[in-house]
Amino acid sequence: MISKLLQERPNLSVQIVNQYLCYAVVSAMAFGVPWRLGLKHWKWFTSNMGFNKYIFWLHGTLTFGLMWLCQPRNLTMIFGDDLDSLAILQCGMISLLAIVLWDFGFGIFSEQNLPMFILINCHHIGLFLAMFFGPGWRVDALVDTDESLRLILENEASLDTCIFGWLWMIHSFGFLLEIILPSVFGIKVVEGARSLSVDAIKHVYALGTVYFYHQYINYNFDKFFTYQTSSLLVMLFGRFVINGNWKNVDFLRRIEFPGFVIVVVDRVLGFHEKFCQRSVTLMVCLCVISLVYNVVFVEITPVPARFFSPEDNPELKKFLEEETDAVLGVSETAEKISAAKTKWEPMSGFILKWWDGKESDDGTKWAQKYPVHFALAHLPGDRENIENFINLLDKIGEKALDQPMTDFNDYVPLILCSYQYNYECILILLKKGADPYKTSKDHKTPIQSGLKDPWRLSATGKPGTLGFSDGFWERFNAICLKKSPPKVLSRQEKFYEIVKQF
Fold first, then answer.
1. What span, in angstroms and rounded, lies between the C-alpha atoms of 432 and 311?
2. CA-based Rg of the chain, rounded to a whole angstrom?
3. Inter-axis angle of helices 227-241 and 257-268, nearest 10
4. Are 347 and 457 in contact (CB under 8 A)?
5. CB 92 within 8 A of CB 14
6. Whole-number pLDDT of residue 289
7. 265, 285 Cβ separation under 8 angstroms
8. Can you tell me the distance from the alpha carbon of 453 to that of 463, in angstroms, rounded to the nearest whole number?
9. With a cut of 50, which residues of the chain have pLDDT below it?
C-alpha cells in the first residue's frame, strides 16, 4: 500500500520519514530519555530548567502558535507549496513543541512516581495524538481534494488547534497576571492569591473551556470515538486526575469538570442539545441527591470545639514527645530516609521557586514578611536549619506560630503541612502550641491537610502520616477531641459546612 502511494506521490516518502521522526522525539521525551542519559546530573539544568515559570508560560503560547503554523493551510500560505520542505518544517515544529512541553527533558517524575509519570504523559500526549492521527494535519491533506472535503479537513485541524491551545493556555496564566494585566491594564494581581479578580478570570476561562468541549465532542454526530474525542479524553485523564485537580482546583471543580461531564452525558445519551438542558437537569438532580446523602448519612471529620495546646493538655504533650523518634524516623534505615528525601526534592525546588519573586503591594518580599512559612519550604535533615528555625520562633514569639499569610488565603504556617516534607519543623510548631484547626479563607485547615495528604508527599505515602509516624494526625485529633469534644452540628449547620467546601 505504502509503496503504491510512494509511486503515485514521491514526496510522500519524506512525509512518512518525518512522521516517524516525530514519533521518536515524542516517545523519547515521554519516557524521559534525555533525563536518563545525563540531564539529571547536569546541575545547571536541574536548578534552572526544573519548575521554571517561564517555561510554563511557553507551554500555552507555543502550543497554540506552533499548532496554528503546522496546519497545512497555514503552512502553504506562509511558506509556499513545496511539500517536501513543508513536511520537514512541520516535523521540526512538532518536535520543538514536544521538547518544550516536556520542559526540555526535565523528567524527575519518570523515575520516582509511576502514577504521576503516567498522568503527566497523558496530559502531554493528547494533543500529539490529534496531530498524528488527524487526517487534516498531513501536509498533503489539501492536495487533490474537492472543496467540501478540504473545508472539513481545515475545520478539523483548526478545531484541534483551538481546543488544545486553549487548554494549555492555563500554563501561561502567570504571564497574564504578571505581565499583561499590570502593563496593559494597570491591574496588579498575584497568582495564587485569593482575590475576586483572579477567581473571576479563572472561572471565565473555565466557561470558555466547556464551550470548546461542547464543540469538539459534538463535531462528529455519527461516531463518538473519533481521533478527536480519543485524544481529548487521554489529555483530560491527565489534566483532571493528576493531584486530584478535578476536586482540589476551584475552577475545575466548580465549572470545567462538571461542564465536561454534562457535555459528555449529552453526547452519549444522544440529546445533541445546544445548551445541554436535559443533561444539566440530570446533573443538578444527581448533585442534590449527593448533597442530601452527605447531609443525612455521611459524618464530617469531628474537630474539637476548642484547641488546647500541649501546655494545657498533658496527654497531647506526652504524645508529641513519645512520637518524636517515630516522626523523625530514628529507627528507619538510611535507604528509606534517603528514598523519601529524594521524593521531596523536586517539590522543594518547586516551592522555593514559587516563593522567589513573590512580594506584597508595598514591595516586601514574601520570604521576609513570612519567614516562618518560608522556612517550611526547606528539606528536612539539616541540623543547622532546625536550629535556625527554633531561634526564629523564639525571636518572633508566639505570634509566629499562627501568623496568617494575609497575601495568600490567610494560611498559617501549619497549613503547609499538606506538603508534608519538612516534618521536623511541623513537629516543632505543634510542640510549641501552633493551632492545627485554624481555618483559612478558602476553608482549609492544617488538620485536614495532614489527614488527607493530598500530594502524597509524606514519608510513607499514607494519608494521616507525619514524617515516618503512620496515623499521626488521626491520633493527634483523637487526643484533642478527648480534651474538648466536638460541637454537635445540626443538619442545617452540616449543610452549610458542606456547601462552604464547594
1. 8
2. 26
3. 150
4. yes
5. no
6. 93
7. no
8. 5
9. 1-10
Q: How many CA atoms lie within 13 A of 463 on its CB side?
A: 8
Q: Which residues contact 169 (CB under 8 A, 6 or more apart)?
A: 60, 61, 63, 64, 205
> What pLDDT does residue 502 have?
72
Question: According to the model, what pLDDT value does residue 1 have?
Answer: 35
* Backbone conformation region of residue 263, classed left if phi is above 0, alpha if psi is from -120 to 50, else beta: alpha
* Cα–Cα distances in angstroms (integers) from residue 98 to residues 68, 110, 312, 423, 432, in the given order: 15, 16, 57, 37, 49
pLDDT for the residue numbered 482: 95
Instruction: Please state the domain extents for the chain.
Output: 1-147, 314-487
Residue type, 454: P
Q: Domain 314-487 carries which CATH code?
A: 1.25.40
- 290: cell is 449527593
Residue 365: strand, helix, or coil: strand
pLDDT tens digit sequence for 100-155: 999 999 887 655 567 888 999 999 999 999 999 999 998 888 877 788 899 999 99
Which three cell numbers, joined as nine digits, stand for 126? 493528547
Nearest alpha carbon to residue 99 among 10, 177, 24: 24
Residue with cell 510548631: 429
Q: What are phi and psi of 469, to 5 degrees?
A: -100, 100
Is residue 117 within 8 Å of 346, Cβ to Cβ? no
Q: Whole-prediction pTM value?
A: 0.83
Backbone angles phi, psi at 223, to 5 degrees: -145, 130
Ranges of beta strands (E only) in 232-391 are: none
The CB-based long-range contact list for 348-355 (8 Å cut-off, 24+ gap) reads: 348/377, 348/378, 348/379, 348/421, 349/46, 349/47, 349/50, 349/51, 350/50, 350/51, 351/377, 351/419, 352/377, 352/378, 353/51, 353/52, 353/53, 354/192
Output the nine-digit C-alpha cell for 369: 514578611
pLDDT digits (tens, 9 = 90+) for 419-451: 656 888 889 999 999 999 998 887 788 888 888
